[in-house]
Every structure is written in C-alpha cells, then in structure tokens.
Design brief:
Number of strands: 25
Shape: globular
Bound molecules: flavin-adenine dinucleotide
Strand content: 15-25%
C-alpha cells in the first residue's frame, strides 16, 4: 500500500465545490474569519451539477434569483439561467471572494473517520491518484444528492441491438453531432423539457417518448418587473428584491397547487392548450394522473417546448416501450419510432454524502439509519454537517441556511471552548416520513438513500422554505437536543 500523504489540518474540511460547498466556505469565513478550511473536489472544475451536465439547453428550472447566492448578486437579465452562465457565475464568485485558492481539485474523498480521543475527523482522499489524509475539526458535506459516476437507465429489452447512438444527459458527449438526425428522448422530466427545444433546432426530428404525462407550465425567462426594479435600485437591494419576489411567486404557485389542485389542473391545462396547435390531444400528452407538485412542476422557459411542437420540430408520444431493435424502439401499441440517436433522460441515482464511508470511533455509520436534525446534522454524529436543498424551491434557499447554521455552530463552540457537538434523539421513538416526499422516479427507486426524517421539529426535513426561514432567523437557538463537550486539551489547528 502506498504511504498516505499528509494534506494538513483544518478547522473545516468541505467536500464538494458546487453551490453548497462554495456557499459554506463563504458563510464560515464570513462569521469565523480565522477558521481555516479546505474544499476537496473530485472533479477538475468548480460547479458540481452545473459543470457535469452539458447537454444542449441545460438550464435552471427554478428562478436563478433564488438559486444564486444571496451574498453575490446575479447580474444577467434572465431569471431562468443557462447552465454555462451558472457555471461562470460560480467560478467568478469563488475567485472574487478568495475561495477558489482553497479548492483542491482531483481530490476524491473516500472515507471520513471521527476519533473521540482527539475530537478530529480524518478524511481519506485519493488526490491526483495518490492517497492523502486531511484532518478537520468539522466536515461539511456539500456533495450533492446523486451518484456522479452512474446515472439511471432502466434495463430496456434489446437495448444492445440498437445500431445507433445511445446517450444519457448526465454524460453528454461534447462532440456529438446530431444535425439532421432522428432523435428519440425517453422521459418527460425537467431535463427532457429543456433538452428537446435545443435539439430541435438542429435535428431533423425529435420525439419525446413518455410513459405518462408530466405537468408543464410556461413562464418567461425575463421578468419585466424585476428588470424595472434592477434599473432603479442599487444592485444589492435589487438582488434581494428579485430573490424575495422569486421565493414569494414560487411559494404561491406551490401553495395553490397543493391546496386547490382541481383549479391548478384547470389553469395549467388551459395554458398548455393555448400554446399548442388547435385540436392537439392535450389530455393524452399533458394531463398527468397525479396532482400538480406531487412531482416537480416543469417550467417551459418562454414556452419553447410548445413552440417546437407547434412548428412540427418536436412531437410527444405517450406509450410504453416493448423493446429496442436495430433501428429504434418498438412500442407496445405496435408503433415503431425510428431513431439515429436515443437519449435516455431516465434520471439520477440518489446518493447520500457523496458515497463517502463514515465511521465514528471505528463504527461505520450508515447515513440512512440516522435521523437528521434541522435537516443538516446527523443523530449522534459529532461535528458533521450535510447540506441538502428543497425539492419544491431553489436548492440554495436551504443550502444557505445550512451554511449559516454551520458557521454559527462553529462560532458558538469556539466561544465556549467546546470541541464536539452532536444532536441526540435519546431512546424516544419518533414517527418517520420520507425525507423527500416527492413522487419522482429517482426518489421512489431509492427512498432510503438519504438520512431519515422525523415528523416534528427539529427532526423533520420540511419542504417549506418560509417556515424554515422563520425558525432559522427568529426561533432557532441551541436546544436540549444538542450535546456539547470538550477535550481536556483539544488539538489546535496549525496556522
Ligand atoms: C440537470 C439538473 C438541473 C437542476 N436544476 C435545478 C434548478 O433549476 N433549481 C434547483 O434548485 N435545483 C436544481 N437542480 C438540483 C441541483 O443539483 C442543485 O441546484 C445544486 O446544484 C446542488 O448543489 P450541491 O453543491 O449541493 O451539489 P452538486 O452540484 O451535486 O455538487 C456536489 C459537488 O461535490 C463533489 N463531490 C461529490 N462527492 C464527492 C466526493 N466523495 N469527494 C469529493 N467531491 C465530491 C461533486 O463532484 C460536485 O462538484 C438541478 C439538478 C440537475 C441534475
């Protein structure tokens, strides 16, 4: 076995240089300027999701004003942002705030071990092919929620016989030339809805094949009200306005959909019908069996998907795959879809904590066996923060609260001389609910991939930003569920 190199000691080891990891670095430094941190990132670039996903048309499907960080204004006009613009924003922000230099790229974290004798995490990494060890008083997991190495593709019968090209959006080949080709995109989630209008600009024909319909809602890329406010108010204030406006608007849509589903269904159908050609079978292709927001509502930016259908460049087929053959897909109805390229937009594989193996004093911790405390710490696991966003609102809304909670915890512990802290549930049984109660395939396939949620504060993972924000800003304090302690002579971080 090669000898592990010493990566050094830090106050905080942050895993992942995506929205969550960079946001954590900013908030921790803002509140604890003397704290030393390192960001370990397995890829060679910043951005996480927004660097990995390179398919044509990749964009945000929640408002970029709430997806961007509250502490660094989004300066472009569009409120629905393209993937490369999000990546550029993240990269320039990390450089501007001095975070970039603390990122160690090509650093794939394998395991993290807590030792109560020293109150220290030892983080084992493969960095540029070499084993390396970092030590930290805290670890912050900004490692996202899905497997970076493997996407999800169902076991389609006959897939191997297809003579054309099969592509998954998670691994889009940079040099894929689809000009003038016949393309079939399997799936009707947010990825397909942003991908298809982009493909339709060059492909001869794009067919979206879905087993069942998804709710689509057209919305403008640019909000004129926000544009006016941005012209009048200084950037900092206009960003705050845009952010609150986006949160309020998205929360209202979600609230109406959940409380008055029949009305929401009627409104969505009416909007879809008005954007599709006369006589289009709206109910066949755009009338889901579930209620709005049982699954994520898909945004159609500037109605581009509907425009592509109207122009005859894209079509929707609602059917089941019987099998693949050499030239395409045979459907159960007997229809055959000819294809040169098939895109399997069939989803992600949920994964907690970046696949990192965790031990506490030599005992392995399975994150899915632990309840999460205030959606950012794990029951009986000291000095560990994990970051997970909302399914019904922009990820960053919770990621930023998590980063601020981590920063606050570190400050509190340092000011009291504590060296460890963990939430403790005690023996009391508590009711459990799914951490993500979303009827999406990638959640249902792997319901137990994430840490557990209880049903009551502080052990519940809610999908309610407004309630969480009120608790976070006005109610939350150190509570009796947290256990704090100190070593007789704590190890100090050098530097
Ligand atoms: C196509 C797509 C579109 C989306 N659109 C939206 C949207 O519009 N709005 C929204 O709110 N959310 C959206 N999401 C969810 C999105 O993932 C979040 O918005 C956000 O980008 C997550 O940020 P993150 O930093 O937590 O995780 P990620 O972006 O996944 O970043 C995690 C980082 O951690 C690194 N990492 C993971 N494991 C390890 C390890 N073991 N060692 C070292 N590094 C590791 C990864 O390489 C990566 O850089 C979308 C997701 C996808 C896939």
């Amino acid at each position: 076995m090669p000898v592990e190199q010493d990566g050094g000691s830090y106050d905080v080891v942050i895993i992942g240089a995506g929205i969550s990891g960079i946001g954590a670095a900013y908030r921790i430094h803002e509140r604890n300027p003397r704290a030393r941190y390192v960001i370990l990132e397995r890829r060679d670039r910043i951005g996480g999701t927004w660097d990995l996903f390179r398919y044509p048309g990749v964009r945000s499907d929640s408002s970029i004003f709430s997806l961007s960080w509250p502490w660094e204004p989004w300066t472009r006009t569009e409120g629905v942002a393209d993937g490369d613009h999000i990546r550029e924003y993240m990269d320039s922000t990390a450089r501007k705030h001095g975070i970039f230099g603390n990122i160690h790229f090509h650093s794939h974290v394998q395991s993290a071990d807590w030792d109560s004798r020293t109150d220290t995490w030892t983080v084992h990494v493969i960095e540029n092919g070499t084993p390396k060890t970092y030590r930290g008083r805290f670890v912050f997991f900004g490692s996202g929620y899905y497997n970076y190495d493997e996407a999800y593709t169902p076991d389609f019968p006959g897939l191997g016989t297809f003579r054309g090209t099969v592509v998954h959006p998670q691994f889009w080949p940079e040099d894929l030339d689809y000009t003038g080709t016949k393309m079939v995109v399997i799936g009707s989630g947010a990825t397909s809805i942003s991908l298809i209008p982009a493909l339709a600009q060059k492909a001869a024909k794009v067919t979206m094949l879905q087993r069942s319909p998804t709710y689509l809602l057209a919305g403008s890329r640019v909000n004129p009200l926000i544009e006016v406010v941005r012209k009048v108010l200084p950037r900092k204030f206009s960003h705050a306005f845009a952010r609150y406006f986006a949160v309020a608007f998205e929360s209202l849509v979600w609230f109406l959909a959940r409380t008055t589903p029949a009305l929401a269904k009627r409104l969505i159908r009416a909007q879809n019908a008005s954007r599709l050609p006369a006589g289009y079978p709206v109910d066949v292709h755009f009338k889901p069996r579930y209620n709005p927001w049982d699954q994520r509502l898909c945004l159609v930016a500037d109605g581009d998907m509907f425009d592509a259908i109207k122009a005859g460049r894209a079509e929707v087929v609602t059917d089941h795959i019987d099998h693949f053959d050499e030239t395409g897909i045979m459907l159960r109805s007997g229809q055959h879809l000819d294809a040169d390229i098939i895109v399997t937009a069939t989803g992600l594989q949920l994964q907690a904590l970046g696949g990192v193996r965790i031990t506490v004093d030599g005992n392995e911790i399975k994150p899915q066996d632990r309840f999460s405390y205030k959606a950012h710490m794990l029951e009986d696991v000291p000095n560990l923060i994990w970051c997970i966003g909302y399914t019904n609102a922009s990820w960053t809304l919770r990621a930023d609260m998590t980063a601020r909670s981590a920063a606050k915890l570190i400050e509190y512990m340092d000011s009291h001389g504590y060296t460890h802290a963990f939430p403790h549930l005690g023996g009391e049984p508590i009711a459990e609910k799914p951490t993500w109660d979303l009827q999406a395939g990638y959640v249902l396939r792997n319901m137990h991939a994430l840490p557990k949620s209880g049903t009551k504060r502080p052990w519940v993972v809610r999908q309610n930003y407004l309630a969480d924000a009120i608790d976070h800003n006005f109610v939350d304090k150190v509570d009796e569920n947290m256990t704090f302690g100190r070593l007789a002579s704590p190890a100090r971080v050098a530097g």
